[in-house]
Structure formats: C-alpha cells, structure tokens
C-alpha cells in the first residue's frame, strides 16, 4: 500500500555569498506501508502491517548558469524485498564535461560518501552531524502572490 506524488516544475536557490543561482528539479515523494506475510495457520494467512515511512524516488538535477557546474541525482526507492531506504547516488559535472569529477552515494538523511575522479574517497556529508540553521524568509507582506508562504498562508493557518 502506498501513495505517490510526482513533483513537477523547478525551484531556484540563491547563494547570496557567491551571487550564484541554482535551478533544481524535485524527486517524487512516496508514503509507504507494506503488508508482510508472516505465516500460515490452518488455512489462514496472518498479515502484519509494517511501520509506515516516507521516501523519495526518481531523478532530479541541479545546475548553476553562472559557473556551469551541474549534478544529476537519483533517489532510489526501497526494493520490495531487502534493500535499504533513503539511498541516493549522484554525479557532479564540471562545465562542458560529460564525465563526472565526483560520484556520491549513501543515504540522503544520513552519511553520503564521495569518490573523486582523482581516486580519492571521502565523507561528502554527514547529515546527522549538521547544525540546524534557522531559515531566513521575507515577511509575508513583502512576498509576491505566488511565493510559497504567501500562497499557502491560509492552509498553514488552518493546519495549525
């Protein structure tokens, strides 16, 4: 049993310190809960529901028009039998190169490892050790009508 959401469109992230703008696409989102057949007792099958989980799946990309760097990212969904949740693989490309200078794999909500074209291997990022940084958002009255917080303000209010 599951539900899937296909995210369409793209987002823009601005890195103010470097005056860089990144265009990115989004992975799909899935809410999962799988029935696990655990045994047969006198013609009856006992089915136990697993703990539900959210996962991301599919391909997305990130590109910077100023630098020309880009990345291709794949969020892997958990196979029906075995496998791990939250796996990710990615390749990062220099401008005008078709071969990646860095490949990344791991868990998007855990530790990701980088393998560089030089042969060097390193921890790319450990999300469990990252500090929480309060986001900076313009006041609602300063936002355009179709900016996310302004557009969804009534829904957010009613959910609270």
From TrEMBL:
GO terms for molecular function: sterol binding. InterPro entries: OSBP_sf (IPR037239), Oxysterol-bd (IPR000648). Pfam families: Oxysterol_BP. It comes from Myiagra hebetior. GO terms for cellular component: cytosol; Golgi apparatus; membrane. It comes from the Eukaryota. This is OSBL9 protein.
């Amino acid at each position: 049993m599951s539900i899937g959401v296909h995210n369409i469109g793209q987002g823009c992230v601005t890195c103010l310190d470097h005056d860089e703008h990144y265009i990115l696409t989004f992975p799909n989102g899935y809410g999962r809960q799988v029935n696990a057949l655990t045994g047969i007792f006198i013609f009856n099958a006992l089915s136990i529901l697993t703990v539900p989980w959210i996962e991301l799946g599919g391909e997305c990309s990130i590109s910077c028009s100023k630098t020309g760097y880009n990345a291709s990212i794949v969020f892997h969904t958990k196979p029906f039998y075995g496998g791990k949740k939250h796996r990710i693989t990615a390749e990062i490309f220099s401008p005008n190169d078709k071969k990646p200078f860095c490949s990344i794999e791991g868990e998007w909500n855990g530790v990701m490892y980088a393998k560089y074209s030089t042969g060097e291997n390193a921890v790319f990022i450990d999300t469990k050790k990252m500090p929480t940084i309060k986001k900076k958002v313009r006041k609602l009255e300063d936002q355009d009508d179709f900016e996310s917080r302004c557009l969804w303000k009534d829904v957010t209010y009613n959910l609270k």
